[in-house]
Amino acid sequence: MFRDLKSNGFDMESTWAEDIVYFQDLYLCLSIAYTWMIILGSDCSKNKKSKIVGAIKKLKNKIVRIYSLFSCGMKWFNRCYDYSIEKYKLKYDFVLYDIYLLC
Q: How many domains is the chain partitioned into structurally?
């Protein structure tokens, strides 16, 4: 997770945040985005979309995953964002609940 939030994924260190409140808000948003990328990566692996992204390879008659779930999710998200083809559409249900309405 440390490498994914820093240089390998979201590039968090380039923000140069000095205000602690700003950094906490940024970290919350990045944590939600990180969780979503992991979910997309695991869905990509489960639904056999890993071949499209290039996340698996066949070595010695075994299928081996060469990207992490985060990297697979980022690649799938970027592909869906860049192309407007129907087969690359993201299917998601993401609902934020207000805690005061639930009480």
A: 1
Q: pTM of the full predicted structure?
A: 0.69
- Residue 21 lies in domain: 2-102
Q: How far apart are alpha carbons 69 and 52 in whole angstroms?
A: 14
**pLDDT tens-place string over residues 68-103:** 888 888 888 877 777 766 666 666 665 666 655 555
- 5, 26 Cβ separation under 8 angstroms: no
Q: Are the C-beta atoms of residues 56 and 65 closer than 8 Å to each other?
A: yes
Query: What is the per-residue pLDDT for 91?
Result: 64
Query: How far is residue 30's CA from residue 77's CA, in Å, rounded to a whole number?
Result: 15
The strand pairing partners of 62, in sequence order, are 59
> CA-to-CA distance for 51 and 21, rounded, in angstroms?
41
